[in-house]
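re: the backbone from monday

yeah here it is again, tokenized this time
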């Protein structure tokens, strides 16, 4: 299966999972090859990510960030890769401690393709900024909050099916991950000069 067919198939499976079709997980490639191919989700998401980075870079420059557009985009891309890969490594140890090591491939494959889908959903935010000509407007802020809430809900649904756990366990899993990663992400963006230090 070529790259595009493979990507569309797996994003389609994620959409089915989000709609409550648990059998969609079994239609995904959960083999060892499927595990590695799931990282094709990153290049699949790249057009949406790149568009978002360009809009955000121009917004940061307007706010006084003196870096070039290319420099800002490069830093965003680096952090995107870091925060895509680090949880994947951390989950090896987390799932082992929880006795869920056998579900590791299910979790990573489904999360990778969910991330690709999410990248296109979040494009609505920079598109709104462009349409209104007001980056950081109240509409953009509300859309950001809505997109984050939707993404957390998606993560819970996918995690529940991938790990074959109860809804409350999935909520706790995603909640703890969010509490840990959010301040780390903010700190990393501040260190990279992409957010102003408080």
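seq for it, each position gets an aa:
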């Amino acid at each position: 299966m070529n790259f595009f067919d493979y990507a569309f198939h797996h994003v389609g499976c994620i959409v089915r999972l989000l709609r409550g079709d648990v059998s969609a997980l079994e239609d995904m490639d959960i083999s060892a090859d499927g595990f590695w191919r799931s990282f094709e989700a990153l290049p699949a998401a790249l057009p949406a990510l790149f568009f978002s980075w360009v809009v955000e870079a121009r917004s940061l420059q307007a706010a006084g960030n003196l870096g070039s557009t290319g420099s800002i985009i490069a830093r965003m891309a680096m952090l995107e890769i870091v925060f895509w890969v680090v949880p994947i490594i951390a989950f090896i140890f987390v799932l082992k401690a929880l006795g869920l090591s056998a579900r590791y491939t299910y979790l990573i494959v489904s999360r990778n393709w969910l991330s690709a889908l999410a990248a296109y959903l979040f494009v609505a935010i920079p598109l709104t900024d462009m349409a209104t000509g007001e980056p950081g407007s109240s509409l953009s802020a509300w859309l950001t909050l809505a997109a984050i809430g939707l993404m957390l809900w998606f993560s819970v649904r996918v995690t529940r099916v991938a790990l074959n756990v109860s809804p409350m366990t999935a909520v706790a899993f995603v909640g703890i991950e969010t509490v840990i990663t959010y301040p780390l992400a903010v700190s990393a963006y501040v260190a990279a000069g992409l957010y102003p230090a408080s």
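The chain has eight helices and no strands. The CA atoms of residues 129 and 135 lie 5 Å apart.
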